[in-house]
Amino acid sequence: MRGKAGNRFVQLNVDAASEEVRNWIQTKDLHEHGPGWAKLTRSASSSSLESPGRVHTRRVRIDEALLFGSMMCKGFNFPLTLVSLWSAIVGKEGWSCFFALDGETPIGIGATYVSGTYAWLSGGTTLPEFRNPSVQKALIQIRTDYGITQGVSTFVVETRSPWTGSLGQSQTSAPTFRMSASGIDRFSNRRSALAP
Questions:
Q1: Which residue, 20, 39, 154, 185, is the most exposed by fewest CB within 10 angstroms?
Q2: Distances (CA, A) of 185 to 44, 110, 161, 168, 194
Q3: Cα–chain center distance at 167
Q4: 169 vs 153: CA distance, rounded Å
């Protein structure tokens, strides 16, 4: 890695790493950088989430693609130069995009990509001024309900990991991500390290 400009990162699924790999990380002066990411799975046979209350959902129409892309960028604090990228998935084969609404006002978004019996739940975000758990519950529910109608049996999502243990430490000693009430299981826990 010598002689090249820029930072170098190593990503590691700490739950699957051998003891040898974890020891190597500690000896190489690698420092944790940024949030960890947890990949979660949910089977189609899992129970429904509790009712999200006053939040309701609907599919995003093609003529609302720019609004969808703008909300994606605002919700994740992405640069506005990415609006066209996120707008482009609305109506694309395999993709289904949804709004969460307060009355008729879009306040959150989520996308789903379906391939065979698998679905990726992507881009679930809520506008900062409307953040509360009901919005994401409604978006998860509409995307899983839609996926089930398309023959999906397994849903996958990636989210920031709340675990803040040592990079070389296995998740087994940290709190579990199994959320049995909603049928969500942790699949992997990926951490990033900045190489010296």
A1: 20
A2: 12, 20, 13, 22, 28
A3: 21
A4: 32
